[in-house]
Amino acid sequence: MQYTFRLMKSIKIVGTGRALPERMLTNFDLEKMVDTSNEWIVSRTGIRERRIADEKTATSDLVAEALLKACKQAGVKPAELDAIIVATSTPDTVYPATACWVQKRLGISGMPSFDVSAGCSGFLFALEIATNLIVAGTAKKVVVVGGEVMSKVVDWKDRSTCVLFGDGAGAAVVVPGDGHCGVLASNWGCDGNLAPLLYQPAGGTRLPTSEETFKEMAHTVHMQGDKVFKHAVRMMAGAALRAIQEAKLDVSDISLLIPHQANTRIMEATRTRLGIPREKMFVVVDKYGNISAATIPIALDEAREQGRIKDGDIVVMTAFGTGFTWAASVLRW
Ligand code: ACO
């Protein structure tokens, strides 16, 4: 091990949790809804099924459930949290932030609670903020949650996007570390010039909701898939590589890679560029589809549950998202 402890931001993730709606939508179900096939979806994306929230469920409901599970595991009461940071692109309302609705749902108040809008990189952006709040001494117990109800912002008649996404939330409770674990290095950034490649055109101040925007389905995901693919691989691999190098690690030191789960081809291409063996990459996209900011914390929770992460392990998380944003974090567990 060659990393320098001096550089490490000493934090610890002491609890994780996830919330997934019960309703499962398989590729075979989708075959009955749009002109697609299980074979096309699996070969292009690796996705076999995804979870879909019911009509009444909003993002804050899933976030609150994941948060409670993470807090229970951490032995922290939600009221004791010093901050709640929710990463989402599918907020309950344009304002206030989904984090405020989470407070209301849990019957708590006081601590700063806010959303981070960084697309699929949102959880790692939020983790970066939480880490720095803790290292600066501003907070001692921060919960970071990625949550999305993507099913309510996709056009279910557009086969090129509706097969890709799912709903869910994942949470992590972050506290000060003991000096042996924490963020060894991280890398985050954004290229706003690429914003038109993946966005929701209507519903904001550029194009307020109207009868016309509704008819054109401009309130749903608009994406240039092939271009997104190219940038995704470049950004996820680039961010991870920069963070690994800054941590002065060799790829052979890495115990587990948790990439943003957009689709298996993007994840495989990223893994190959990094030179990390396949068995060290954690994959849940086949079961859940792309849940944007929620995919990494959900995968993290499942990896911990399955005993894939032990104390001292080096875990690399890397993501890209609308914006385009990118973020990678190298953690010593
Ligand atoms: N079923 C069948 N055919 C489809 C489907 C579908 N669900 N969707 C699109 N097609 C058709 C298209 O209409 C097109 O047909 P045409 O050639 O007659 O015009 C054809 O398939 C396109 O085929 P390919 O070029 O082989 O598709 P490609 O290999 O580019 O795969 C995909 C498309 C999966 C969208 C790919 O571009 C991709 O993975 N892009 C990244 C998108 C992504 O993951 N976004 C996630 C959101 S971003 C984020 O997570 C931050």
Describe, in plain words, how this protein is organized in 3D.
The chain is of the alpha/beta class. The protein contains eleven helices and 13 strands. The chain has helices spanning 27-31, 38-45, 59-74, 98-106, 122-135, 159-162, 211-215, 225-246, 264-274, 285-288, 295-305; strands at residues 11-19, 24-26, 49-51, 83-87, 113-116, 142-149, 167-176, 182-190, 198-199, 222-223, 256-259, 314-321, 325-332. The protein has a five-stranded mixed beta sheet with strand order 1-7-6-4-5, sandwiched between helices. A four-stranded mixed beta sheet has the order 8-13-12-11, with helices on both faces. A two-stranded antiparallel sheet has the order 2-3. Helix 3 packs across helix 4 (98-106). Bound molecules: acetyl coenzyme *A. Acetyl coenzyme *A (ACO) binds at residues 36, 40-41, 44-45, 119-120, 159-160, 163-164, 198, 223, 225-226, 228-229, 262-263, 290, 292, 320-322.
Brief summary:
This protein is α/β, with parallel strands linked by helices and 333 residues long.
Helix share of residues?
Answer: 25-40%
Which CATH class of the largest domain is shown?
Alpha Beta
Q: Separation of termini? A: 14 Å
**Unreliable residue stretches:** 1-6
Q: Number of domains in the coordinates?
A: 2
Q: What small molecules are bound in this structure?
A: acetyl coenzyme *A
Largest sheet, spatial ordering of strands: 1-7-6-4-5
Which band does the percent of strand residues land in?
15-25%
The name CATH uses for the topology of the largest domain is Peroxisomal Thiolase, Chain A, domain 1
In total, the number of strands is: 13
Rg is: 19 Å
**SSE arrangement, N to C:** EEHHEHEHEHEHEEEHEHEHHHEE
Quick one: overall form?
globular
Sketch the major β-sheet. 5 strands, mixed
Structural class: alpha/beta
